[in-house]
Amino acid sequence: MTDPYSEISEIVNNQNNWRKQCINLIASENATSPAVDKLLVSDFAHRYAEGLPGHRYYQGTKYVDDIEIYTSKLMAKLFNAKFAEVRILSGTQANMAAYASICKPGDTVASASIPCGAHVSHTRWGAAGFMNLKWRSLPFSVDSFNIDIEKASEQLKEEKPKLLILGASLFPFPHPVKELAPVVHDYGGKVLYDGAHVLGLIAAGFFQQPLKEGADLMTASTHKTFFGPQGGLIVTNDDDLFKKVQNNVFPSLVCNHHIHRLPALAMAAAEIEKFGKQYAQDVISNAQSLAKAMADAGFDVVKTSRGFTESHQVVVHVEKLGGGKNVAELCEEANIILNKNFLPTDKISPAVMDNPGGIRIGTQEMTRYGMGKKEMKQIAQLLKRLVIDKEPADKVKTEIIALRANFQKVGYC
Ligand SMILES: Cc1ncc(COP(=O)(O)O)c(C=O)c1O
Known about the structure:
Blueprint: H1 4-20, E1 23-24, H2 34-40, E2 51-52, E3 55-56, H3 62-78, E4 83-85, H4 91-102, E5 108-111, H5 127-130, E6 134-137, E7 140-141, E8 146-147, H6 149-159, E9 163-166, H7 177-186, E10 190-194, H8 199-203, H9 210-213, E11 217-221, E12 232-236, H10 239-253, H11 261-296, E13 300-301, E14 313-317, H12 323-333, E15 336-337, E16 339-341, H13 350-354, E17 358-362, H14 364-368, H15 373-388, H16 393-405
Parallel strand pairs: 1-15, 5-6, 5-9, 9-10, 10-11
Antiparallel strand pairs: 2-3, 4-12, 7-8, 11-12, 13-14, 14-17, 16-17
The structure holds pyridoxal-5'-phosphate.
């Protein structure tokens, strides 16, 4: 190694420069504002503050207490919740804290299956299985692209899982919290809503309001449709549950809680408070425009009686275009970044595991960079030329770089 600093910087610059030339449509990512970026680097990054404000195991934490109290209050207010736990480091860990607060090893949790939208942490292949919880998948309606309310109610009444997990990774339509929460509460179970994907939309009053609709707690990550740095969140109105959550976060799941996230998260919450309504409206209308333009261009876009989507996500069948893996790789060659995704209609086999039937697209990041309906139509055309017409990726890439060049500044801040 000749000059580690230059070598490391070169990798970082490569990433920064390349991504400035890409249209990022990964539905689980976003860009942070200059104010959030600036607040992410501070002395807090070097500190420990185990425990809760006023009850720490370390000295030197008076300003940690200040920022933690400030951030928790702001996050709770945004979700009309009594309590917010901001020490948790990721959405997956937030789910683990929730499971540990409600379930014992051997208890059953129920969620959608992965092809029907669940995050792996909801299932036996992820955190739920890792914590020795049994997992049951819920019936799904391909027509409504949602959990089948009637069949799921029957299953829940019969099997009585300790915890119903709603919310998803593939998530164009709100889940039936209002309809299923009473069924679960009737037999003494609890309802967790995983709002990782749609947190920014919920904060702005869009998509759905899970706590109001009957969820006992909501977990999330803070960096998808929300404006925060990468991190986790748990909110609830339930005093007892919140105490259990706090006690599971520390000492069980988190020791140092990456305190430098907190000022940045608080700033992101302030931005959402001020600009979130307009942002969420624009994200959703962009997703609807992109979905329609893609369907008009010949793509097989998921559509139900409610339309194409009510979130930031557009879901597209690409089985006849080479499958999700091939389409996503082709798009990357032309600087459009999106991901392959299982779809409810996929029949799980080794071939489908590698090359599932769909792609998932999110409009939240390009909206934050200022793109609107006109650009959504342009993106649909570029995707058509690349994926359907099979124009050379290099040719399309030049136009994608030119389009992205006009959208470099993070907005809604
Ligand atoms: C619904 C859902 N929950 C949890 C997670 C995990 O979040 P994290 O990456 O913050 O652990 C994801 C990740 O994309 C997700 O989609």
